[in-house]
Design brief:
This protein is of the alpha+beta class. Helices cover 23% and strands 40% of the residues.
Length: 286
């Protein structure tokens, strides 16, 4: 019998997994609470705060291919979280088997496909329909000030934009790897700016080649300095690249994230000709 680390809380079980990695020392840790009913909001917030990970997912009922899911950071509810969805997908696959699951989230239905390859389970989520909107110049300038970046350090082939695939992200692309390598930002001022604009994370990227990106994601609105792997932002980036004509779908690319934090993560992003963006990854118990 496999001994997974769980806590019994509120007639459910809390699991801890690292998503987008097959190594417990990598990936993005997520709590996944599973029970017959979704707890009250105050209870979910308390559990997520106690867990302390960037997000904890709450999943009900405890079995079946149709589930309801909610996400909480240590400070607030988050409408959609990619890495916690991947963690939840791998977890339900362990008890329910491989197959097509459907998670009803507050932003819409999320299809999650679970499959096993070489003894390792992998989950793939399909986001809601992505969209983009222009990022106001003032917002870009204020974000750059908070980051300590200069506009000349941006990659003008991937212009700044607000991108959505469940939650909004400000996408800023660095022209050189060394700009992305250092992340030392004004936490409080960036948090205030993001809350005012309803932005969940900044998707800071550097494109090494056409099918390989490196990313860092400040997440002060959730009470976390940086996210080691951000599936929601990966989906939003895929949607932006498609709508902006920056790749020709169908296309697949990889995002490497968490490198600067010592928690390397690998996100596989598939961009179909139309519809939601597919983000895939493994997860491992902590």
């Amino acid at each position: 019998m496999t001994d997974f680390k769980t806590d019994k809380i509120l007639s459910g079980e809390l699991h801890r997994l690292a998503a987008f990695s097959s190594d417990p020392s990598g990936g993005n840790p997520a709590g996944v609470w599973v029970g017959d009913r979704i707890p009250e909001p105050a209870a979910m917030q308390q559990i997520a705060s106690n867990v302390g990970y960037s997000e904890t997912a709450f999943l009900a009922p405890a079995s079946g291919f149709e589930r309801t899911i909610r996400y909480y950071s240590p400070e607030k509810e988050i409408a959609f979280c990619g890495h916690a969805t991947i963690a939840a997908g791998v977890l339900v696959g362990e008890s329910g088997g491989d197959g097509a699951y459907h998670f009803a989230s507050s932003v819409g239905a999320i299809a999650v496909t679970v499959r096993s390859e070489n003894g390792q389970r992998q989950a793939s989520l399909t986001s809601v329909e992505p969209t983009t909107k222009a990022a106001p110049q003032k917002l870009i300038e204020q974000a750059l000030v908070c980051l300590g970046w200069k506009s000349a350090e941006l990659d003008n082939t991937i212009p700044p934009i607000l991108a959505y695939a469940g939650v909004w992200h400000l996408v800023l692309a660095a022209a050189e790897a060394k700009r992305l390598a250092t992340l030392d930002y004004d936490y409080e001022n960036l948090k205030t700016l993001m809350l005012g604009e309803d932005i969940t994370t900044l998707q800071l990227v550097w494109r090494e080649r056409r099918d390989l990106f490196h990313a860092r994601n400040p997440f002060p609105v959730g009470g976390v300095v940086e996210d080691p792997a951000t599936g929601a932002a990966a989906a939003a980036l895929g949607g932006y690249l498609r709508s902006g004509g920056l790749l020709k779908p169908p296309a697949t690319f990889i995002i490497l994230q968490g490198e600067g934090m010592g928690r390397p993560s690998r996100l596989l992003v598939h961009v179909p000709i139309q519809g939601g963006i597919i983000v895939s990854g493994t997860a491992v118990h902590l």
